[in-house]
Amino acid sequence: MNTLKRGLHGLVEKWLAPTPAAPAHVTQFSRTAAGNRRFVCVEVSHPTNPRALFFFRHDDGFWRVFPPPGERPAMGYRQAA
After folding, report:
1. HSE-CB of 72 using CA atoms within 13 angstroms
2. CA dihedral 60, 61, 64, 70 (to 10 degrees)
3. Most exposed: 1, 9, 47, 76, by fewest CB within 10 Å?
4. pTM: predicted TM-score of the whole model, two decimal places
């Protein structure tokens, strides 16, 4: 797996396509309330087509454009002998 494609810099270039005339800027970064996971909002202020995306850090260390799955409730049962 190519880490450049999963790194934040590579994803910003892929999804937002910044240019020297319209560079990318981090507008927000923090941790999620649920799960305390990192996220960052990156914006490209192009005059005719401004864009912004949130990127989320997953447990495997990669950044993605969707949040990591939270812990979900689960039920189990024990089979009778």
Report:
1. 5
2. 50
3. 76
4. 0.75
